[in-house]
Design a protein that fits this description.
Four copies of one chain form a homotetramer. The first copy, chain A, is α/β, with parallel strands linked by helices. Chain A has a single domain (2-201), classed as Aminopeptidase (3-Layer(aba) Sandwich), CATH 3.40.630.20. In chain A, 29% of the residues lie in helices and 24% in strands. Chain A contains six helices and eleven strands. In chain A, strands 2-3-1-4-11-5-10 form a seven-stranded mixed β-sheet, sandwiched between helices. In chain A, strand 2 (31-32) and strand 3 (35-42) form a beta hairpin. In chain A, helix 2 (48-60) packs parallel to helix 4. The radius of gyration of chain A is 16 Å and the shape is globular. At the A-D interface, strand 7 and strand 9 of A face strand 7 and strand 9 of D. Chains A, B, C, D: Homotetramer. Chains A, B, C, D: Its EC number is 3.4.19.3. Chains A, B, C, D: Keywords: Cytoplasm, Hydrolase, Protease, Thiol protease. Chains A, B, C, D: One of its GO terms (molecular function) is pyroglutamyl-peptidase activity. Chains A, B, C, D: It catalyses: Release of an N-terminal pyroglutamyl group from a polypeptide, the second amino acid generally not being Pro.
């Protein structure tokens, strides 16, 4: 049986939950298109997060890897297009590390493009009534770090798909951040199932609009 | 048995659903604190909306009246503080009427303050994990029109509580409006139940922060 | 010679300048349409602000009174439509007062509508290349307090025009608030001159779109 | 004498002006730190924009190249960190081309990092009272196209600095886009002079916070 590896993060930045793990953990053991979903929680820590992720990839040899992270302040599910080779932390990670303008992989490529069919995924989510869009930046914190590391890791395995999805706050988090948008766990869960289905079925991405003028 | 009247609107502005009626209609017949919830759909039409509302108030003599409307673009459940005596339509209503700077009730007061305990409601919603805040303006379209008309109607019935609550787009609406925030129907339903409970139990509002510097 | 009274506020909320006074003070002594502009700085204090304003009105008997205040976070010049009879302070004023849900004038009307031609003013500003819009709420802090008090004061003087205009941060303020929009002092100054000209020339407001659906 | 090449764009997307050229053209012939500023207008066209830029670089052999573009909707001057190797046009360019997910340089690196000291530039702008921040994405339209092409072009000339700066709408543009933030031409001009000065003086960038969690 083939595996789909889906990861979420532990809480960070003063939050008591991380919506990514709250939702991802609900997918543990699901069968989607005859593949088994395996989930893992990553520490919100530069370096360690990738150690945990890489170990899971080595163990499972998954067909698809989707890392999921919280993007507090975003309104919809955002499928990341690209990860860049830099750690630039606005706040410390959960071990107190705050790298500024340091390469993730010294000598590595400046960026890795996602290996998920992002346009097809956004289209399928919207058709399912889920607010979604392509994002042109995954930031420069641990999420981008994990996305870059993941794509670097699988760069020599042509058949493995992988990428990163950012999700909004949960309503219970936004209740403590007046003015912040949110999305219910049920909606996010449905979004992730769509993302897995599309990743498993879609060989090439579709050519539809999803860019940004800036 | 006492009644709680809750209204939602029909779709407007090119939408095929209105989240207010989608959610409000789910409350029909509920019993909350030994009161029966009765729901009505209002046309998104200046004048007619108030005819339907007023007839329902006359028929039911409710203890609490909560009118609910869509506020596409807002991130949370907003409890309106005040309605002002002006119709100023940015878009036509569902009958093609587009009044500009016309009083709702000629000679009526410039404004009516809500008769819901708005601070207590916001506090209770947040405690329940629902993003909510006080809003200082209900706009100048049919929502404000209904809120003003409602408060004008019940102004001489000291024991009737009433007011207006704005809610965000549903996710399925926001899926067609990239960049717009949304809220799941389940979250909005929970919010409205909290609003009804607080309105029924709370005699005076609490003195907590909820103002805006501008 | 007739007078136009224009007021700005002292800094508040941790700022070292208030853009309203920075710009308003530049208008002192200007002659616009054969009227002399007189400017006054108001303290950002509930009560005292109105004492200073009322004294200036009594002294000058102005044809037009425009009070100007800072709205940090707004993108354009906003002409306020209405002031409501409530003080509800999110932060303390400059004397440490923080009234919550207290009427400005006990027994006074729930609201006063502006006595400036707001639609004509917005149209004229936009024609001059200045970003401007009608605002449906002046908040519940000292700005709304001053607007309400001003309109209450001049309510029995049919020939006096008056109202309130909110302006964005200055660029030098926004430089310390990443993410906040701003407007140059020169642009705001041009806006205020337009507002004075329109107030002096325009007898009735024009009927053009300027409402909000919520 | 050494040259600083600064480019702006022609109008696009229905605008009649492009703030980048409006401001950049004012710098023509300036002497900053004994370098002469030469300005060029680029067509808002995939391909052609780079032909014009590359010809100017070949002709002038400049010490610093700063390309400037309009980012309607942004509130401040944003110094771009990275350009990615993809054209993905949300709207057609000025020749009607709308490439979707096409590499700018087939076989080129996935991204090029800026060769401007972006943290030092942001710090210096803020010290001068100009709202500014680091941006993690230049989009996927002609601006990103030019930034990528510029950095690709100068990638083998270790001593040439270069990068891209996005600027907000001018006030006169925002006056036609209610809700859009803007920045006065004078403020933008001051920002660009700071950027040139810092680029000429600063050898290495400073290590200060400027990242994004997402």
């Amino acid at each position: 049986m083939r595996y789909v590896l889906v990861t979420g993060f532990e809480p960070f930045g003063g939050e008591t939950v991380n919506p990514s793990w709250e939702v991802v953990s609900q997918l543990e053991g699901s069968i989607i298109d005859r593949c088994r979903v395996v989930t893992r929680q990553l520490p919100c820590v530069f370096g360690e997060s990738l150690s945990v992720l890489n170990a899971a990839i080595d163990e499972l040899n998954p067909a698809v890897v989707i890392a999921v992270g919280q993007a507090g302040g975003r309104v919809d599910v955002t499928i990341e297009r690209v990860a860049i080779n830099v750690d630039d932390a606005r706040i410390p990670d959960n071990r107190g590390q705050q790298p500024i303008d340091v390469p993730i992989v010294p000598g590595g490529p400046a960026a890795w493009f996602t290996r998920l069919p992002i346009k097809a995924t956004v289209a399928a989510m919207r058709e399912s009534g889920i607010p979604a869009s392509v994002s042109q930046t995954a930031g420069t914190f641990v999420c981008n770090h994990v996305m870059y590391g993941l794509l670097h890791k699988i760069s020599d395995s042509a058949e493995v798909k992988g990428g990163f999805i950012h999700i909004p706050y949960l309503p219970e988090q936004a209740a403590a951040h007046p003015g912040a948008p949110s999305m219910a766990a049920q909606t996010v869960k449905a979004a992730l199932i769509v993302a897995i289905e599309v990743a498993l079925r879609q060989t090439d991405d579709v050519k539809i609009v999803g860019g940004a003028t800036h």
